[in-house]
Structures are given as structure tokens and as C-alpha cells.
Amino acid sequence: MSDNNEKFHEYDGIIEHDNPLPTWWLWTFFLTIIFAFLYYIHYQLAGGGTLQDELKVAMAQLEKEKASVVDTSPMETEDSLKEAFGKDGILAVGAQAFASKCAACHGQELQGLIGPNLTDKFWIHGKGTRMDVIAVIRNGAPDKGMPPWGPVMKKDEIYAVAAFILSKQGSNPAGAKPPQGEEAP
Amino acid sequence: MNTTSGNLIEKIYYDDDIVKKFLLATMVWGLAAFLFGLIAALQLAYWPINANMEWITFGRLRPLHTNAAIFAFAGNAIFAGIYHSTQRLLKTRLASDLLSRMHFWGWQLIILSAAITLPLGYTQSKEYAELEWPIDIAIAVVWVIFAINYFLTIRNRREKHLYVAIWFYIATIITVAVLHIVNSIEIPVGFLQSYPVYAGIQDAMVQWWYGHNAVAFFLTTPFLGLMYYYVPKAANRPVYSYRLSIVHFWSLVFIYIWAGPHHLLYTSLPEWAQTLGMIFSLMLWAPSWGGMINGLLTLKGSWSLLRTEPLIKFFVAALTFYGMSTFEGPLLSIKSVSALGHYTDWIIGHVHSGALGWNGFLTFGMIYYLVPRLWKTELYSKKLLENHFWLGLTGVLLYYISMVTAGITQGLMWRAVGKDGQLVYPDFIETVVRIVPLYWVRAFGGTLFIVGFLLMCYNIYKTIQLAPKEQKAEGTEVSRSGFDEKTDKTHRKLEGMGLVFSVLAFLAIAVGSVIEIYPTLSLHKYITPANIIEPYTPLELAGRDIYIKEGCYVCHSQQIRPIVSEVLRYGAASTVEESMYDHPFQWGSKRTGPDLSRVGKKYPNLWHFSHMMDPRAVTPKSIMPNYPWLAEKDTDFLVLRKKLSVMKQLGVPYADDIVANADIDAQKQAKLIAEDLEKNGGPRNLQKKEIVALIAYLQSLGQKGKQ
Ligand code: HEM
């Protein structure tokens, strides 16, 4: 880009030259304009997919992948859980998860606050078996203020808090909330 | 003196006093704006800096920072430069000393009233248009004073043809007036509260048409005008290409105005508008770079000056940052890039490479150029100037790099979905904790920038102090020129016709505005009757006003995008109907905390109470401020009748008896919530308190549809 040294105009001592427009700049401009037109025509006039369409496709894809993964994991039973809950170090993991996610509603000592006391033998949901506890943690009781944790926590983490909760059965913390639900045998 | 002879020499006196006033105001408000920014940055890194004081919590401080940076710092700088360069380019004194002073003092009063009302929580919650209606009116009046003064000056000119800088100033004056007036149409509810006439997607469209073009016509076009004057002046080099000026000026003003919806990609704004926003942003790339090219090629060959005139460094850096951000902007407007970057700190990084790098450095260069000339002396220290430059540059780079890294990191964490179809980071707070170290880096970068700025203030102070005490105004000898020039070039003729030029500039910005805004004004066309929602109850409306007052929207969005990870995290994508009664809309633009559009019924009332009193009671690592005063302040129930009647006037279907009984109704609902709080072990007697109204609003979010 050599400077065209001809003075074109002058204002307050500022001299204006009149060099040609840089070619690469002009091409950038043209190409963006052409792309813009094609893009608009494709998506707004020629029936290109809308954002909602894209979401549907992506959700379907996700469901498919999910289905293929779930098939391979073994069925949960009370026995398989018993084994899983016995893993080393699981209670420490559970205690930590409980403190950060559950204590706000169930109290630091599980004594009950907004949610029920989790150390007594009384259960609103099920009878306090491992399967029951896992189920209520996963599905929650959204109408009653217990959030569903299935979508938020990983399987191992849910196992860990459940194991932690069951390990606190009968710990009789101070300020425990009065029993709610049915007494388990 | 008014002879037709082109060669008569006249002695005239420029009004430099007004330029000095605006320059000093620039520095004073600049310091305030930067300090507010630094405090806000520290609050995000370390929440206790919110200090449990309602006036300076992040939600109220950030709007104060943005308003101060844009309107006080950049605004005063623009006025100083425009008034200084225009007089010289048109060879005439400003038309009216009185109007100039009314402009100056009026503008400072507006800034002062912003600095008082924003911390007190008087806000419309529309970004960069937060100020309440009496101040909006004052802004319009002062702007009109500025415009009259300016156009009269153009009429008095002794130079027939308008130089390119003036084109940019004209476009600025016209467009800002249009933007401000259209976006501020609102109905007062009280002395310092109002509801905009627009709702939901309408309000979003108008607001971001305004918001984006505040960047375009307040932070870009006037600064390009300043660039076209001060860069060739300081470097004493010819402007590279007149032709390029013409092409990039007209394409820039015509295209810029369309780009607003790139702030609203993947939202419930109609898709045609989103697509227009994206493609016009892409087309904006070359016109923006036209300005950078013309600037940098003007400086080409002056590299030796970098040693003798070091202030040129600021101009080189400013133009480079301008080029960077106008490349990044179109990139961020591509739908798939926006999907990652929107709501994250990437945007904050982007804004600041423009704000600190382009606006900041150009202003600093201009100040270093102007002060010695206006005070007829030499700059006190070139060494300090050098130090300012390098500190500032390091500061901006640290700011930019840390925020882009934070934004992309968090964006990737939000969207990560595992093989099992679940979010990899379902806990929002995990994604926040990860980027807190980068908030510290940003605050450090900001500190460097401020230290550099303080060096400048000292340097300028010394310069003025050492200037000759006798500052008698020197006249300048000028003669009329250009009036007898014969030309057959259309654009050259146009440059000689100020009024026609201004009308054409207005038309250029009117086209895109009308095409994008007009259709959304008939909101009903976009609404499916079956999905129409229930309006807020009076108590919920009271709570919503508290949400606005505390600036919750500054950190929380209410707009779930049709993207898999968002649907998994927050629920079904937001619809047009969900915000159809929202005057103003609350979609937000940054997710420092999670989206709230479906938070209703997710947690018990008491959870919200504990959370608002101390977020760490329920989320141990939260960085949200505490809001203890909400449990102490009373809700104003009586004003609800007025509020509902204004809403009804705006088309929200409230029956007459609901409006008439709004306060009673609200008190009933408040009592129920207060009882529930007490029953579950919360404090007693909260029914009159603001917290209860806020909880009512939060519990209604996402619950108003017919499920
Ligand atoms: C030391 C200097 C500065 C610091 C430390 C700083 C800091 C900040 C912070 C913390 C935010 C909010 C970030 C968030 O929400 O996460 C912000 C936003 C913003 N700042 Fe600054 N700032 C500085 C200077 C400036 C300047 C000079 C300008 C303009 C001339 C500016 C314009 C803005 C704008 C427009 C936003 C809002 C961005 C958006 O809405 O997305 N800032 N700044």
C-alpha cells in the first residue's frame, strides 16, 4: 500500500490524502455481505432449522445415548447397595456432600430443620431401607420442599450421602425435630 | 466582517475554557468510575466486601460503575474533544457560551443525581438506562441543548466543508437522542419510579437496540471522530484515505443500528430478529476495521515519533484494541459462539478491551495532547507518561486475559454433559468457585490500570501548576475557505451542506431501527393464546420491584435458552408468553449466579429466607451478598393500587376490583407466607417485611403458566 501523496483537502492543518481502499478490506466486506444474505435466506426463508428444531434433535440424541448407557449397569437391589455402602471412605465423602447440600434443610446433625429429622426411625417416604432412602433422594418430594437430587448428583455421591444418613440412625442429636411419618419396624 | 470575500482575515477567540472544564471533569469522574469498578471486582473475588451495606452491594454498585464509566468518564471526554476540535475544524467559536455552560453544568448535575439515586436503589433495571424518569428528562433536555449549540456552530462555520470527524459527531448527536428518547418511554408510578411501556420481547428488543447502540454511538462513533482529529494532529501526518472515510462512515452508521439483537441470541425474541442481529454484526466487521486502518496507516511512518512524542503510544494501542474488539464482537455474534460466551465473563473481558483499551487509551492520549496546549506549557514529565502507558497496558491485558479465560472455562463447565446424559457440573457453585482466582487476577489488572491513571492525574496536576499564571486568551487568525470551491463530486457537495448531511445520517439509522422494532410492537402476533400466563399478584409485583431495586438481575438471568445443557439444568426453554407482562423484562445479561426463571416452588419459603439473610447458610461457597435489611424494611402496600393501575393501563389484564383491593390482597398473601415461615421455625411477624414480598415473587417464577 504505497501512499498516494497528493494532498486532497486540508482542515486546521490536517492534510487528507485519497488512497484507494485496500483490496483485502473490500473483499472482507463483500464476503461478509454475501454470507449474510445466504445465511438469512437459508434460515429465515428457505426453511432452515429453527433453534427449537435444533434443541429437539439434540435432546433426542441425548436420550439415545442415555438409553445405551443405562442398559449396561447392573440392577440395584438391597444387597448390591449393602455392598456398595460398605466401601472404604464412603462415609467421609457422604458427610461432606451432606454438609454442603443437605444440611441447610436437615440440620448439620441431621436433627431436622425445614426437612425432617433423619436420625429417628420415623419415615415419611418408605421404611428406611437403603432402596427407599435412595429413591427419595433421587426423586425428592418437590411439592413438599425436598428437591430431587437425581439430576444433580452422581450415583456414587447419592450412595455416599445415603450411607452417611443411615450410619447416623439413632444418634439422637440435640434439638431433634419431633417424629414425622410412620415408625419403621 | 461578513463579506463574501474568501480571503478576509479575521481574528477570533476559541472558547477553550469550556474544554478545560470538561477535561477536568473527565479526570475526576474517571477516577470515581474506576474505583467503583475496582470495588465491584473485589466483591466478586471476596464477598464480604459487600459489607452488608445495601447502598454498595454488587447489584447496586455495578450499575453505578457502568454509568459513571460510560456517561461521566467517556461522556465528559467526548464533550471536551468535540468542543475543542470542532471550533478549529469549523474556524468559529462555539455558538453560545451560555448553552455551552448549561451543557456542562447540566451534565454534571445529571451525573451527581445518578451517583445519589443508584446506590439508593432507584433504577429501571435497563442496562445503561437505569436512571429514573426525572433524570431521563434532564438527560434529554441537556442533550438537546448540546445539539442546538452544535448545529448553530455548524451554521456559523467559516470552513464550508465538514471534515470526517464532524460527520461522526453529527451521527452521534442525532442517534443518541433517538436512542435515549425511544428507550425511555415510561409511565411514572411515583417521583422516582416508573414502568416502561414495553414488555417482554418488546422491551428486550428496544433495550438492546439502545444498549448496543450506546456502545456504537457513545463509545465508538464519537471516539472515531476524536481519533480523526487528534491522531493526525499529534503525529503531524496526513490522513490516509478520504475515500475510505466515506465508505466506512456510511456503512458503519447504517449497519451498526441493526446489531442489537446479538445480545439476545437463543432467547425467546423472534428468530428473524436474532438472525438479523447476527448477520449485521458480521457485516460490521469491515466497516469497523475501516476506521482502524485509516488510523494506523495515518500513523505509519511516524514510528520515530514514539520516542519524541510518546503519547502516540496511547493512540497506537487504542487503535489496536479497537481492532481487536471489533473483530471479537462479530465473532461473539455468531449464534454458536454466543451459546458458549453469553452470560459469562468472556463478555466482560470483551467490553473492557474496548472500554479500557480503546476509549480509555484514546482519552488519555487526547488529555496528554490537550493539556499542555490549552495551558500553554510543556507536559511535566514524559517519563511518568511512559510509566502510565506500560502500567495501563499490563492492566488491560491482565483484565482481558483473565476474564476471557474465566468466561470460556465457566461456559464449558455449564454445558458439559456426560455419557449418562447428566450434567458433569450440576452444582452451579462449582463453576463459580473454579473462576474465583481469575477474579483476583482481574482486580489486580484493574489496580494497575488505576495506578497508571493516578500517575496521569499527578502529571497533569503538575503541568497545570507549572504553567504560566497569566493565561490571556490569544486570538487565532482565520479566513473563510471552501465557499468558492467548485466540485462535481456528490459527496463533496454533501460535506458542504450540514443540514442535508444530518438528515441523511438520521435516515441511515432510522431504517434498521424501524424494521427491527416496529414488528415487535404488536406483541400479540407472537403469542399463542393457549400459553398466556396469569399476571403477578399484588404482593408478587411488590416483590418484583424489590428484585429490581436490589439489582438481582445484575447477576441472575431469567431466560432459559433452547440448549440441551440449559434445559437439563434449569428446565424447559423460556417462552414469549412467560415475560409478556414484564415491564421491564428481567432476562439479565450475566450469570454470576444461576438462572432463576423456574426457581418458583423449587425450595421452601424458609430456605429462601435463610438464603437471603446469609447465602452461605445454604450454599457454603456462595459469593452472593447478604440482604439482612430485607427482614427489617416494610413493604409499601398502599402504593400497590397505583402500581397495578399503571400496569393495567399498560395492558396487563387486572380486573378493577383487584386493582382497588391490591393492598388488602397483598397483606393477606403476606400473612400466609409469614405464617409458613414461622411454622417451620423461622422468625415471627415478618408479614409486613420486604423479604416476604420478595419470597412471594421468587416462588411465582415459572409458576404462572397453565400447567
Ligand atoms: C480499572 C478500571 C475498571 C475496572 C476494575 C472495571 C471492572 C468492572 C466490573 C467488575 C464489571 C462487572 C463485571 C461482572 O458483572 O462480572 C464491569 C462492567 C462494565 N464496565 Fe468496567 N471496569 C473498569 C473500567 C471501565 C471503563 C473505563 C469502562 C468504559 C469506558 C467500563 C465499562 C463497563 C461496562 C460497559 C460494563 C458492563 C458490561 C456488561 O454489561 O456486560 N469499565 N467493570
Describe this structure in words.
The complex is a heterodimer of chains A (185) and B (707). Chain A is mainly alpha-helical and 185 residues long. In chain A, 49% of the residues lie in helices and 5% in strands. Chain A has two domains: 8-68, no CATH class; 78-183, Cytochrome c-like domain (Cytochrome Bc1 Complex, Chain D, domain 2, Orthogonal Bundle), CATH 1.10.760. In chain A, helix 6 packs across helix 7. Chain A is elongated, with a radius of gyration of 32 Å. The mean pLDDT of chain A is 86. Chain B is an all-alpha fold and 707 residues long. Chain B folds into two domains: 16-466 and 494-515, Cytochrome C Oxidase, Chain A, CATH 1.20.210; 534-700, Cytochrome Bc1 Complex, Chain D, domain 2 (Orthogonal Bundle). Chain B has helices at residues 17-45, 58-90, 97-120, 133-155, 164-183, 200-218, 221-235, 242-256, 271-283, 285-299, 305-308, 312-332, 335-341, 345-374, 382-415, 428-466, 490-495, 498-521, 538-549, 564-570, 605-613, 639-649, 656-660, 662-679, 690-700, and strands spanning 9-12, 186-190, 193-196, 476-479. In chain B, strands 1-4 form a two-stranded antiparallel ribbon. A two-stranded antiparallel ribbon of chain B has the order 2-3. In chain B, a hairpin with a 2-residue loop joins strand 2 and strand 3 (193-196). The longest helix of chain B is centred in the middle third of the chain and has 39 residues, at 428-466. The radius of gyration of chain B is 27 Å and the shape is globular. The N and C termini of chain B lie far apart (79 Å). Classes of the chains: A mainly alpha (185), B mainly alpha (707). At the A-B interface, strand 2, helix 1, helix 2 and helix 4 of A face helix 7, helix 8, helix 9, helix 10 and helix 20 of B. Protoporphyrin IX containing FE (HEM) is lined by residues 34, 37-38, 40-41, 44, 62, 65-66, 69-70, 73-74, 127, 345, 347-348, 351-352, 355-356, 359-360, 446, 449-450, 589-590, 592 of chain B.
